[in-house]
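Researcher: Next entry in the queue.
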Amino acid sequence: MTIGAASAAIFTVNNSTGPVADFTSIQAAIDDPNTNNGDTIHVYSGIYTENLVVDKELTITTDPGNSDDTIIQIDSPNPYVINVVVNNVDISGFYVLGSNDNVGILLNGVEGCTIAENSLSNNSDGIRLDQSSNNLLSNNIANSNNDTGIGLLNSSYNTLSNNIANSNIDTGIWLFNSSYNELNNNVASLNLDFGIRLQNSSNNNDLLNNRAISNDHVGISLAQSSNINTLNNNTADSNTDIGVGLLNTSSNTLTSNIISNNGHGIWFESSVNVLIYDNYFNNNNNANFLGTNTGNIWNTTMTAGTNIVGGSYLGGNYWAHPDGTTGFSQVNDDTDLDGFCDSPLSENELSLNNTDYLPLSIDDVLPLISIASPADGSSTKESSITVSGAVNGTGSAPVVTVNGVTATTTLVDFNGTFTATVPLVIGANTIYANVTDGAGNINTAFVSITRTSSSTGGSGGGVGNAVIVTVQEEPEEEEEIDTSTSDDMGNATMVIPEEEIPDEEVVEDTSESQDGSESAPGFSIMLTTGILLSAYIISRRKD
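Model: Structure for this entry, 543 residues:
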């Protein structure tokens, strides 16, 4: 006996015009005894007024791109519109509309679920995870909810990716007592309190490439013993009060973040042992401190690597002001061009026991480049030429291109030579050698060179050869010769009487003939017959 696994079934739902479907209600499709774990429920466009309890491992989806046309709205004052109570449920493509006091999609004690490409509004929370782990929330839009766009409560090891949480009454994305989650490429903007908020022992979360913009209070907040979190490459911009806030936290790491145009850049309040380096601060008040803030480290050791302002070394942070001229990194010199200000940003300018020993400086010195060969104004018959010269990155590794061709560089530190071979067209050519340093500064050198034709030839046929014809003149009488022939190889022979040759075509030839006799004046012409340009020499020999 052979027992095979049953194939997953697809059931359809439609409560309006269009294709005839298996069900007119989504919940009826879920509850049907023929619907089993692993099946798919495909919902056609329409408005479905019902509260869903998903208690089977199902995929519930609609036509791609039709979330605005496939609406699930709350039917009765329940605490949810969709309540997922089993593992491994996928829900995608819906517009979930609540009634202010409910959750749009609730994951309750589950794992392995995917919630993707849904729009959620007018709920208390758009999406909420309670005691749920190892779930994926991606490409959802949670806007204009009465509390939070996306919330995680007591939930760990989840991934939130490419979601938008805008214009919510409280917080865009909120983690409460939730650890080891990954938030990447999310946008939280125009929320009336926090953009992204980690609270109450939310530890060891990774925030990468998120944007918290134009929120009315704080862009990104870590508070109430939320520790060993990592914030890397995030943007906190134009938030009314604070870009990044740390309140009663420890052992968090902030690297390569852009914190700009906020009321206050970074706010420390009784937060300790925080590592902050390679961040870009550009606020009127870049750092503010309340309470005791000790053990914080504002730079790493000088390490090779591209920093946040394009320099060649990691170290401290870049400190600017929006006026473009008065920030610490903007007014302090970098005389040795190592990418760091000559002076540290001391505790007097930050706070007691807080010093940036390697504040970054922007390198605005142009790199140097020169072309040694070919010489400017020279000419060649070759179809390509090798260009060589010298380059100096003035503090960072230079990249050289020659007419768009990446050159080979030989460097000692940041100085050295380059070579590149580039093609030439017949006629005038301008060769440009460009150098770009690690800070993005560009400089150019150029030379002009002319390519001349390397050989003469006809416009078609084979390759002909020059033919020398000797015409003898008898002393008694002259014989007119007027013939032309060609052989199978395309070689042409043409003999013309001397008296028919124009004076300007005559060329003196004082060489001896093959038998040692003296040659008389002859001529050469270029024959343009469409076969090949060949030279013809006609000579007359005396007796």
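Model: The first strand starts at residue 10 and ends at 13.
Researcher: Noted, moving on.
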